[in-house]
From TrEMBL:
The keyword DNA-binding does not apply. It comes from the Bacteria. Belongs to the short-chain dehydrogenases/reductases (SDR) family. Pfam families: adh_short (PF00106). This is SDR family oxidoreductase. Keywords: Oxidoreductase. It comes from Lachnospira intestinalis.
Length: 281
């Protein structure tokens, strides 16, 4: 009998998910809880993670919600101490907190098309750029510094970072977010190497284009038709469609499964309906 590689059973594992108040990582937190894990859901937004934890507990799963800013090491350390008491040492860390900021975004795709009144490259706010780099890079580094200590003690564990399509080739308008996610992909390889001897694996997913409440207005007009940017995205995606949030979960489970992915470390897995594979021709 062959032992089948995918078990998707995380019974008893302590899974810490940052950014769990958000769309994607809220789903990841829920998925791990449903697969038997004890989930610690962290977010700046306490209400959202408390609500998620309450819902999951009512359904018979194990989840606690904690408020913390991933950029404030003392806050993350305090939450770590509470998680040790409530759930135990961290087995899996999902570094989900991240995102872009309007202050680091240009209105125009190309300088030669700039119109009066638009925010161009020359108007980008360096503090906004710093904010995006700090959120995505330090927001991955700081929780890893704190939770990977549990994994070193156990000599086992998994770290999963969230990169993006723009890490491979930058997207127009969002230079800081693109650069910061490229740094997250690079850091994933660095961590994989650094912790290999401690039997900790570190990987990332690079989600493709998803429709969320936040970007719906950018992707579709008031009649529900794809905007010009959306049409470019769909034309650049061989499958000709957006990715659903629940389509990330198979890749997340695979990378965090010590049996299925025992020799997989330092990879950034695109889950993108083919976007990163297609040259456009
Ligand atoms: P989201 O904006 O819905 O959620 C992000 C969550 O992170 C929010 O609940 C927010 O409160 C929290 N957060 C922000 N700053 C924080 C901080 N300093 N400390 C703690 N929590 C903080 O985002 P999402 O769409 O669910 O994205 C999750 C991750 O996936 C991010 O890293 C994002 O960059 C990445 N990503 C998203 C997409 C997409 O299309 N949605 C695509 C590729 C990558």
């Amino acid at each position: 009998m062959l032992e089948l590689p995918l078990k998707t059973d995380f019974t008893g594992k302590v899974v810490v998910v940052t950014g769990a108040g958000g769309v994607l990582c809220g789903d990841m937190a829920r998925a791990f809880a449903q697969a038997g894990a004890k989930v610690a859901a962290l977010d700046l937004n306490e209400d959202k993670v408390k609500k998620l934890a309450e819902e999951l507990k009512n359904e018979g799963f194990v989840c606690e919600g904690y408020a913390a800013n991933v950029l404030e090491a003392e806050q993350v350390k305090a939450v770590h101490a509470r998680i040790l008491e409530d759930l135990g040492k961290c087995d899996i860390l999902i570094n989900g907190a991240g995102g872009n900021n309007k202050r680091a975004t240009t209105d125009n795709e190309y300088q030669h098309e700039a119109k009066a009144g638009q925010t161009t490259f020359f108007d980008l706010d360096t503090e906004g750029v710093d904010f995006v780099f700090r959120l995505n890079f330090q927001g991955t580094l700081i929780p890893t510094q704190i939770f990977a200590q549990d994994m070193v003690e156990k000599q086992s564990g998994n770290i999963l970072n969230i990169s993006s399509m723009n890490a491979y080739i930058p997207l127009t308008k969002i230079p800081a977010y693109s650069g910061a996610k490229a740094a997250v992909s690079n850091f994933t390889q660095w961590l994989a190497t650094h912790f290999a001897g401690s039997k900790i694996r570190c990987n990332a997913i690079a989600p493709g284009f998803l429709v969320s409440n936040q970007n719906r207005a950018l992707l579709f007009d008031e009649n529900g038709q794809p905007t010009a940017r959306s049409q470019k995205i769909l034309a650049g995606t061989p499958a000709g469609r957006f990715v659903e949030s629940n389509e990330l979960l198979g890749g997340v489970f695979f990378l965090c499964d010590d049996r299925a992915a025992s020799a997989v470390t330092g990879v950034v897995l695109p889950i993108d309906a083919g976007f990163s594979a297609y040259s456009g021709v």
